[in-house]
Amino acid sequence: MDNRVIKYESERLSLYLGKIMGRKKKYYTDKEKKEAQRKWQMDHYERNKDKILQKAKERYKRKKREQKRTEKRRNLYGDQ
After folding, report:
1. Whole-structure pTM value
2. How far apart are CA 20 and CA 12, in angstroms?
3. CA distances from 33 to 15, 28, 46, 54 (A)
4. Phi and psi (nearest 5°) for 23?
5. What residues contact 52, with CB distance under 8 A and at least 6 apart?
6. How far is C-alpha 74 from the chain's CA centre?
7. Which of 4, 13, 14, 32 could be cross-linked to 27 through a Cys-Cys bond (beta carbons 3.0 to 4.6 Å apart)?
8. Which residues of 41-63 are buried (b: 16+ CB within 10 A; e: fewer)?
């Protein structure tokens, strides 16, 4: 067979398969996928560390405030 014919056939096949099969896989194993996800999560945490820690502090303070309020109510009115 002529080299040009083989090249043409392989290009047609790749175009045909490209339309059917979708994009190429980014990760071939679960381990690769987990490592990539972990890397992204670590990068995201580093980029947004201040906001994340601030939200955690606010949640902690709100929880403590609510505990004090419920304790105060129990002391005033007893368990009802």
Report:
1. 0.55
2. 13
3. 27, 8, 20, 30
4. -75, 160
5. 45
6. 42
7. 32
8. eeeeeeeeeeeeeeeeeeeeeee
Query: For the residues of 2-64, what is the DSSP string, one character each?
Result: -HHHHHHHHHHHHHHHHHHH-SPPS-SSHHHHHHHHHHHHHHHHHHTHHHHHHHHHHHHHHHH
Q: Give the largest Cα separation in the chain, rounded.
A: 96
